[in-house]
Amino acid sequence: MNVRPARVTIAVTLAALLAGAGAKPHVLHAAAQAQASTSADASVRDLLQKYSTALESLDANAVKKVQPSIPAENLTKAFKDMRELKVRIEDVRVLSSDGTTARVSCRVTQTLTPKAGAKQTTSVTRVMRLRRDADMWLIDGFER
Amino acid sequence: MCARRSTLGSAFLTASISAIAVLAGARPARAQQNLPLAQLLPDLILRDITLNSPPLPAGVPGAPEGLTHTAHFSPIEAGELNNPVVGIVQGFTTQMATQFATFPLGSSSGGMSYVFDESVGTFRRASMSFGPLFAERALTIGRHKLNAGFNYQRTSYNRFEGQGLDDGSIKFYLRHNDCCTVVLTPGVAPGFILTTVPNGTRINTPFEGDLIEASLSLKATTNTAAFFANYGVTNRWDVGIAVPVVNVNIEASVTARIIRLVTASNPTVHTFDLNNPNATLTIPRSGHATGLGDVVVRSKYHFLRSGAGGLAAAVDVRLPTGDADNLLGAGGTQAKFLLVASNERGRIAPHVNLGYTVASGTIAATVSGLAAAELPDEFNYSGGVEVIAHPRVTVNADVVGRTMRDTGRLQIESKEFQYASTNNTGPVCDSQGFRCASAFFDEFQLHSGNLTLLLGTGGVKYNIGGNLLLSGSVLFPLSNSGLRSRATVTIGLDYAF
To answer: Could you report the per-residue pLDDT of B170-203, keeping only the tens digit for each?
Structure first.
């Protein structure tokens, strides 16, 4: 599922999300949970899109809006050396969610064009801790 | 951007290949008259200065037939290796040989490396600085990263222990060989008997009291192209190699002047020109050698991280791959163990290196027939600062110091030269009743001790584009001891693959 085809790919399947979140045997209960998970998934995808957009904009304040705990000063310094940053997030899996917190696994591929030095790419699978704030998810931190 | 990187990469490779081709086509190592370059100066001073003195014909009363003074100031020719000037010349040339072959090479501390910083979730430049020029920093280049390049430096030397090298101010005093003995026989014509038997004194025979002042003018230059590569085995561990190709040029001349302490009344005894007994003799000699220098293999482990710095341990092993006899190598193996500390605060990145070099082997034999000196152990210390003037420009300043242990120091001092008094005054100092007088001249004297050399350096590393760095620096002496260079210019290219 390409949310932002040119830059961000958030590949999520509902079945995978349900399986990852742990399906319940009761059909009605499962259906309700599936509905909730779908809603959570959409919110998570929205969060990850904002996160990648913020990184690509090389704007530390924009990143801080979706990840309040980030050391913005350090990020600002890191951005100062960048000419361009491309971010692709894929293989998103909600590992657990209780409505107020969630753990999400995703593969983050970043391609850096620095002001000094050559272009380079790194791709890492990260596990994010999310928390619900009002009606939106925020990144609380990274487990790895 | 990829195309740009490719262009820069190929430009770098082209430059490297061109340099290799130039050096591969360089002249083979040779010195004049097939003499090893390390022996050029000793031969010039200790062998080549000979007199114009025809052999004595038969029938000269009291003197042996065929006696000639030709090689009486040539201790190598005469096999008189205990002549005091031999030790002085050997000390001088040994120190030169040691310092020629161990002049510092520019370091490669890696240029632009980016790391993935978990705390900010993206890339961060490992260091804003492109690293020091003649020292190391703790930072390694990163796992599976390779950087390679070359430095070229030209060094010419102009002073030795405070004396000018190329203006004739370094003087050696050649003592006459202890060749002969005269026995006075009053009442029997001609009143003496001369034999070619040494007697341990230059009072007897009196003509042994003359000296030759040999003034040296020397132009010595080295051109070194060092090719290097560093590879990050892990994020903390680098290994590397530096392969220097060295060209050494020596142009020397010695002007010899007879100091007639004894033979003023009979100047043709010691002369370079029978028609002009007071003529001086100037002998030029030159030699050059080009070839592989001492290859250095390097390893560095960044064991304590702190921001963009920390502490690292490094070892440089200098292998005896250079031809020491032609001053292209040190003649032995040297292992330098270094503790490296560096930091980065804003635009300033200081670094300090402390180390010790263990040496094994001998320096080139400079005087044939004499044992060569041991390659000395060294204390190494350097410190400096990198200033990040711009994301693409790092300005460097360093002090590089080394103390070579127990190499001895040559120092100018006034020396007394005794000779047989020509006016029959002074104390009697010979069994034959010769009286002696003294003259004093300033000459090097070898003293035991360490030799400390301090160099300052300033330079710039500039990111031309992509991962290509251009560096330029000037290295200048901060101490008067030992062999002192003029400002040494170093330029280099460094590419991170």
So the answer is: 999 999 888 888 888 877 777 888 888 888 888 8
Q: Which of B301, B242, B289, B247 is nearest to B105 (CA)?
A: B242
Question: Could you give the dihedral angle defined by the CA atoms of residues A65, A66, A72 and A74, in that order, rounded to the nearest 10 degrees?
Answer: -160
Instruction: Please answer whether residues B276 and B267 qualify as being in contact, where contact means their C-beta atoms are separated by less than 8 angstroms.
Output: no
Query: Omega of the bond prior to B42 within 30 degrees of 0, cis?
Result: no
Rounded Cα distance between B276 and B282, Å, is 15
Measured between alpha carbons, how far is B11 from B230 in angstroms, rounded to an integer?
19
Chain A hits for B128, Cβ within 8 Å: 81
The reply to whether ipTM tops 0.90 is no
Which pLDDT score is estimated for B26?
37
Is A77–B1 a contact, with Cβ atoms under 8 angstroms apart?
A: no
Question: Do A113 and B117 make contact, defined as CB atoms within 8 angstroms?
Answer: no
Quote the domain boundaries for residue A84.
Answer: 4-22+32-142
pLDDT, tens digit, 9 for 90 and up, residues B64-94: 888 888 878 888 888 888 888 888 888 888 8
Sort A10 into a burial class: Cβ within 10 Å, 0-12 / 13-18 / 19+: buried
Whether A39 is in a domain gets the answer yes
Note whether B125 contacts A114, CB cutoff 8 Å. Answer: yes
Please state the pTM of the whole predicted model. Answer: 0.75
CB contact under 8 A, A114 and B122: no
- Asked if the structure places residue A116 within a domain, the reply is yes
Angle ∠(B142,B143,B148) on CA atoms, nearest 5: 65
CATH number for A80: 3.10.450.50
Q: Which residues on adjacent β-strands are paired with residue B181? A: B195
Chain B residue numbers with beta carbons less than 8 Å from the beta carbon of A118 are 1, 5, 112, 466-467, 496
B114 at the A interface (CB within 8 A)?
yes
Instruction: Report the half-sphere exposure of B455 (CA within 13 A, side-chain side).
Output: 27
The structure tokens 């693409």 sit at B392
Give the max Cα distance, chain A. 58
Pairing mode, strands B309-318 and B296-306: antiparallel
| Overall domain count for chain A | 1
Domain annotation covers residue A119: yes
Task: Give the number of other CB atoms < 10 A from CB of residue B162.
Answer: 12
Residue A85 lies in a domain: yes
Nearest CA among B46, B52, B53 for reference residue B67 = B53
Give per-residue pLDDT as tens, B470-485.
999 999 999 888 888 8
What angle do the packed helices A14-21 and A27-56 form, to 10 degrees? 110
Give which of A62, A89, A93 is closest to A75, Cα–Cα: A62
